[in-house]
Amino acid sequence: MSGRSHLKNKILLRSVRDDILLAQDGAGSEYHFSRPHNTHKVPILRLVKPDGNQIHYQYDQDNIPTLIKAVNREGKLFGQLEFKKEHVQPHQVILEASSSHGATASYTLSKVRSEKKSKWILRKASSSEAPSETYQYDADYKKIIWTRIHPRWPQPCQI
Prior knowledge:
This protein has a domain at 79-159. The chain is built from no helices and twelve strands. It has strands at 11-15, 20-24, 30-34, 44-48, 54-59, 65-71, 77-89, 92-99, 104-114, 117-127, 130-137, 144-150. Strand 5 and strand 6 (65-71) form a beta hairpin. It is globular and about 40 Å long.
């Protein structure tokens, strides 16, 4: 087992003043989480790498990401991802992601019940730089049982 993943090299601290949980791993990376309120879901707010580079996360009221940005130790932006949420049906959401480098992606999420709890699962992923994929889950929605890749081949033309 490596020093990075060994449990004795993990530290969890809690800041009482500003409701922040701080975790550190064996590599020296720091993970900043917001303290959970009425939920077991704890969104990560910031990841600080040992070299000073950071990744910042912002979420909406449903804990779905709205912005992820990477900055260096001086605060200069490396790149960012913006997410826009569109409600298609009561239990289906499409997240449209766009990067600061021009790449785009679309994620279709469905809310399902598993073990008497609601959770979001990924149904389809599309990207401007890769083929689309559709996912099928087992009956309990615990694992993906198959993935269908939709090729982007041009439609055959008639001569």
